[in-house]
């Protein structure tokens, strides 16, 4: 994945300085637990003009929260611009880079798998709002050969352990193994 880069970006804390132009930015928050694994998500989201009640409109990220009185973002939020060459790449705007995920290569071809995630609702369905901090359903797939694709699960820790075991054996993680 071309968008997964070394951690050399110049991050700025949101509470120190905010971006001023509309457009796409990378965002990140400190590491916390997702499905039993401690990860630090970096994701792309737009900056857009938001109504501020009785005050003048301001630029805020699309995942900011308005409670009717105040607009807020996650604590310790940091941002940096999406670089020009990244803008040219045909990648999903909603891609998340999960820093700290230790997962072995595809059991069939050795390529590093991609983790995707969504926020699932109780009783099925997905939320439309894009906020990786609320993601609770995870899966792994091989972007190269397409042979390896895990089930969608809440227990990321079990999924990673099953995937890594299967990677050692040369088989993709199966649903029954992850649920155990
Ligand atoms: Zn593969």
Largest sheet: 7 strands, antiparallel
- Which range best describes the helical content: under 10%, 10-25%, 25-40%, 40-55%, 55-70% or over 70%? 10-25%
Structural class comes to alpha+beta
Please tally the helical runs, counting DSSP H or I stretches of 4 or more residues: 3
SSE pattern, N- to C-terminal: EEEEEEEEHEEEHH
Description:
With 180 residues, the protein is α+β, with helices and mostly antiparallel strands. It folds into 2 domains: 12-89, no CATH class; 101-179, no CATH class. The chain has helices spanning 84-88, 156-169, 175-179; strands spanning 12-13, 23-28, 32-34, 37-52, 55-61, 65-66, 71-72, 78-81, 96-99, 114-118, 137-141. It is elongated. The model has no long low-confidence stretch (mean pLDDT 84). It binds zinc ion.
Write a short abstract of this structure:
The chain is an alpha+beta fold and 180 residues long. It has helices at 84-88, 156-169, 175-179; strands at residues 12-13, 23-28, 32-34, 37-52, 55-61, 65-66, 71-72, 78-81, 96-99, 114-118, 137-141.
Write the layout of secondary structure elements.
Blueprint: E1 12-13, E2 23-28, E3 32-34, E4 37-52, E5 55-61, E6 65-66, E7 71-72, E8 78-81, H1 84-88, E9 96-99, E10 114-118, E11 137-141, H2 156-169, H3 175-179
Antiparallel strand pairs: 1-8, 2-4, 2-8, 3-4, 4-5, 4-9, 6-7, 10-11
The chain binds zinc ion.
């Amino acid at each position: 994945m071309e968008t997964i880069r070394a951690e050399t970006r110049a991050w700025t804390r949101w509470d120190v300085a905010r971006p001023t132009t509309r457009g796409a930015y990378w965002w990140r928050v400190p590491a916390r637990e997702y499905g039993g694994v401690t990860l630090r998500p970096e994701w792309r989201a737009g900056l857009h003009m938001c109504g501020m009640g009785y005050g003048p409109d301001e630029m805020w990220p699309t995942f900011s929260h308005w409670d009717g009185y105040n607009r807020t973002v996650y604590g310790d939020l940091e941002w940096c611009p999406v670089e020009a060459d990244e803008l040219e790449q045909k990648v999903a705007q909603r891609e998340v880079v999960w820093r700290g995920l230790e997962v072995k290569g595809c059991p069939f071809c050795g390529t590093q798998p991609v983790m995707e995630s969504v926020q699932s609702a109780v009783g099925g369905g997905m939320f439309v709002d894009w906020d990786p901090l609320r993601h609770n359903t995870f899966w792994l797939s091989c972007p190269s050969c397409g042979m390896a694709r895990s089930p969608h699960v809440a227990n990321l820790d079990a999924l990673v352990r099953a995937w890594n075991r299967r990677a050692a054996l040369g088989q993709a993680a199966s649903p029954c193994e992850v649920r155990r």
